[in-house]
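Query structure, 62 tokens:
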């Protein structure tokens, strides 16, 4: 389980790093927009991301 978690964490870091590496200007603008959002909006995006992740995990195990 520990090795799988480490691999998943490594993949997350790689995916998270793609946009700042490929298009730093777009990433900076996106970050500016996120800073201007209210907490509830950011939480909604976080919750949506987690739900989609759980659904993808469930689909991949089926």
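Result returned for the query:
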């Amino acid at each position: 389980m520990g090795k799988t978690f480490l691999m998943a964490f490594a993949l997350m870091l790689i995916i998270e790093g793609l946009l700042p590496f490929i298009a730093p200007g777009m990433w900076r603008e996106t970050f500016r927009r996120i800073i201007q959002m209210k907490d509830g909006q950011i939480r909604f995006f976080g919750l949506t991301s987690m739900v989609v992740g759980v659904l993808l995990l469930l689909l991949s195990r089926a």
